[in-house]
Amino acid sequence: MYHHTKTKGDLAVLKAQVDLYEKGYMILTPQTEHSPFDLVVYKDGIFKRVQVKYRELNVRGILEVRFRSNYSTASGVTTKEVNKEEIDVYCVYCPQTDSCYYFNP
Protein backbone atom coordinates (compact mmCIF):
# COMPACT_ATOMS: atom_id res chain seq x y z
CA MET A 1 0.00 0.00 0.00
CA TYR A 2 1.36 3.44 -0.95
CA HIS A 3 1.80 5.99 1.82
CA HIS A 4 2.38 9.68 1.25
CA THR A 5 5.30 11.00 3.33
CA LYS A 6 3.00 13.04 5.58
CA THR A 7 0.75 10.02 6.13
CA LYS A 8 3.77 7.94 7.14
CA GLY A 9 4.80 10.58 9.66
CA ASP A 10 1.27 10.76 11.06
CA LEU A 11 1.20 6.97 11.45
CA ALA A 12 4.55 7.03 13.27
CA VAL A 13 3.32 9.69 15.71
CA LEU A 14 0.13 7.72 16.41
CA LYS A 15 2.10 4.51 17.00
CA ALA A 16 4.47 6.38 19.33
CA GLN A 17 1.55 7.88 21.25
CA VAL A 18 0.00 4.45 21.85
CA ASP A 19 3.35 2.90 22.79
CA LEU A 20 4.25 5.69 25.20
CA TYR A 21 0.75 5.69 26.72
CA GLU A 22 1.07 1.94 27.34
CA LYS A 23 4.41 2.67 29.07
CA GLY A 24 2.61 5.01 31.48
CA TYR A 25 3.40 8.41 29.95
CA MET A 26 0.96 11.30 29.69
CA ILE A 27 1.02 12.50 26.08
CA LEU A 28 1.01 16.23 25.25
CA THR A 29 0.88 17.54 21.68
CA PRO A 30 2.12 20.88 20.35
CA GLN A 31 -0.54 23.08 18.75
CA THR A 32 1.64 23.72 15.70
CA GLU A 33 3.42 21.67 13.05
CA HIS A 34 6.41 23.98 13.35
CA SER A 35 7.76 22.88 16.73
CA PRO A 36 11.09 21.02 16.72
CA PHE A 37 9.44 18.03 18.44
CA ASP A 38 6.29 16.01 17.74
CA LEU A 39 5.25 15.20 21.30
CA VAL A 40 5.95 16.05 24.89
CA VAL A 41 5.62 13.21 27.37
CA TYR A 42 5.29 13.44 31.13
CA LYS A 43 5.96 10.80 33.78
CA ASP A 44 7.21 10.89 37.38
CA GLY A 45 7.46 14.69 37.36
CA ILE A 46 9.66 14.80 34.25
CA PHE A 47 8.78 16.29 30.84
CA LYS A 48 10.57 15.04 27.70
CA ARG A 49 10.41 16.40 24.14
CA VAL A 50 10.07 13.59 21.59
CA GLN A 51 10.87 13.72 17.88
CA VAL A 52 9.20 10.86 15.97
CA LYS A 53 10.38 9.44 12.64
CA TYR A 54 8.99 6.76 10.31
CA ARG A 55 11.77 4.59 8.93
CA GLU A 56 11.70 1.38 6.96
CA LEU A 57 14.51 -1.15 7.18
CA ASN A 58 17.13 -0.70 4.47
CA VAL A 59 18.17 -3.56 2.15
CA ARG A 60 20.54 -4.88 4.84
CA GLY A 61 17.77 -4.92 7.45
CA ILE A 62 19.09 -1.87 9.32
CA LEU A 63 17.19 1.21 10.49
CA GLU A 64 19.06 4.29 9.32
CA VAL A 65 18.32 7.51 11.18
CA ARG A 66 19.09 10.84 9.60
CA PHE A 67 19.06 13.83 11.92
CA ARG A 68 17.30 16.09 9.45
CA SER A 69 13.82 16.85 8.21
CA ASN A 70 12.47 17.85 4.83
CA TYR A 71 9.54 20.08 4.09
CA SER A 72 8.08 21.76 1.03
CA THR A 73 7.76 25.48 0.47
CA ALA A 74 6.74 27.56 -2.54
CA SER A 75 10.40 27.58 -3.61
CA GLY A 76 10.89 23.80 -3.34
CA VAL A 77 11.96 21.20 -0.82
CA THR A 78 14.00 22.39 2.14
CA THR A 79 16.21 20.18 4.29
CA LYS A 80 16.87 21.22 7.87
CA GLU A 81 19.32 19.60 10.28
CA VAL A 82 17.82 18.64 13.64
CA ASN A 83 19.00 20.74 16.56
CA LYS A 84 19.67 17.98 19.09
CA GLU A 85 19.45 20.52 21.93
CA GLU A 86 15.73 20.98 21.20
CA ILE A 87 14.72 17.34 21.72
CA ASP A 88 15.26 14.87 24.54
CA VAL A 89 14.25 11.58 22.93
CA TYR A 90 14.23 10.27 19.37
CA CYS A 91 11.55 7.72 18.52
CA VAL A 92 11.76 5.71 15.32
CA TYR A 93 8.72 3.73 14.21
CA CYS A 94 9.48 0.81 11.86
CA PRO A 95 6.50 -0.63 9.93
CA GLN A 96 8.22 -3.97 9.22
CA THR A 97 8.55 -4.69 12.95
CA ASP A 98 5.55 -2.56 13.98
CA SER A 99 7.68 -1.27 16.85
CA CYS A 100 8.96 2.00 18.23
CA TYR A 101 12.63 2.37 19.11
CA TYR A 102 13.82 5.12 21.46
CA PHE A 103 17.23 6.70 21.97
CA ASN A 104 18.86 9.93 23.07
CA PRO A 105 19.84 12.21 20.17
Automatic annotation (TrEMBL):
Protein name: PD(D/E)XK endonuclease domain-containing protein
Domain PD(D/E)XK endonuclease: 3-103
GO molecular function terms noted in the UniProt entry: nucleic acid binding
Source organism of this protein record: Bacillus thuringiensis
